[in-house]
Automatic annotation (TrEMBL):
Record's protein name: Homoserine dehydrogenase
Coiled coil: none
Keyword hit for Lipid metabolism: no
UniProt keyword list: Amino-acid biosynthesis, Methionine biosynthesis, NADP, Oxidoreductase, Threonine biosynthesis
Domain ACT, chain residue ranges per copy: 355-429
Organism of derivation: Geomonas silvestris
Binding-site residues, L-homoserine: 190
Residues the record lists as binding NADPH: 105
Taxonomic superkingdom: Bacteria
CDD domains reported for this sequence: ACT_HSDH-Hom
Pathways involved: Amino-acid biosynthesis; L-methionine biosynthesis via de novo pathway; L-homoserine from L-aspartate: step 3/3; Amino-acid biosynthesis; L-threonine biosynthesis; L-threonine from L-aspartate: step 3/5
Amino acid sequence: MKEIKVGLLGFGTIGAGVVKLLKENASLIEEKTGARITLKALADLDITTDRGVDVSGIHLTKNADEILADPEISVVVELIGGYEPARSFVLKAIAHGKHVVTANKALLAVHGDEIYAAARAQGVEILFEAAVGGGIPVLSAIKGNLAANRFSTVLGIVNGTCNYILTRMTQEGADFTEVLKSAQEMGYAEADPTFDIEGVDTAHKLCLLLSLCFGTRVNLKDIYSEGITSISAEDVNFAKSFGYRIKLLAIGKRDGGQIEARVHPTMIPIDYPLADVHGVFNAIRLTGDFVGPVMFYGRGAGRDATASAVIGDVMDLGRNMEAGISRRVAPLGFLDQMVAEFPIKPIGDVVTKYYIRFQAVDRPGVLARIAGALGASGISIASMVQSARSSDIVPIVIMTHEAREADIRKALAEIDGFDVIREKSTFIRIEDNLT
């Protein structure tokens, strides 16, 4: 039986999961690939801390070059994360003719074109199933069984930290700050949660989903990103009363020759399957012209789920190597020369429905002034709620019909300047017309 030797860069939580899975399911992996996959070496700056997994028979080193230059190692698994030194290590592995498996969505979102081109030039493969959705096999499905479809939309709840926070805010009526602190104490949020709660992590993943679904190169800077820090318990409760739940949603839509690419808190109807994705779970909903809507659901992070996706990629490489083939499927699922550059629609041109909340002085004529300003910008009101008075300041909530975002922003800039408005207005986009 052929032996495929693997080198692992990064021995953090996911790296430990990879070691555990390769050890515990070795015989099953052999039965399914026809090859023995062996972890020959592991590189990390800390090789002394006990990770609770068996590392016997694995060469441990602090020097990544020992793995990158080892002629016996044919597959490098990169689990360092971030941009550097991950980028340099991946490019060096490719230059040495090694296939690469990575879970690094940030790296591919920013440096993907360079890495794909290097892999193409060397005739090696770059696989990254674990980069989106942890253990959810969505990327391989897009490139494989669903490849015959033209996709019109991709919607994703792909950040477990934000989904956990919003779930608890919905179920308990708690405030964002309170839940974030609890999430950090429980290990569901990083000590510095900025990438998660500001939508950056979700935007990285949307970059990859857009490229695979629409065959387009995407610049991360072109994706409109907005986090969940401004969502209040009050907004969550109003959403409930209107029949919605708030989720941080990655949204990609094909709109003629343009692509909508945006990440932001979104109200979705409570009877939609995406609204029932709770806690740290993830879900991705695709709509293809022949398959129709399809939703993938599961653990979007965590040691074992992510390790499952990583080793799945390694096994795919093992099967290909056993068959003597390489690059049967291009990294993005499209032939390299067919990957296009569709323009990203500016956020101001996006048309959707909106929830708007004002904090206003309770006096006659306030509603008329607000409605007049919205109407002057061409915004039609679908419904309006003014809470019972408990002080001189009351929340006024308006749900609009479809409107252009630039018009919403123009109207709110005017209304926020009214002497009867006490706080900057809050608005949340609504997605309730999914096909």
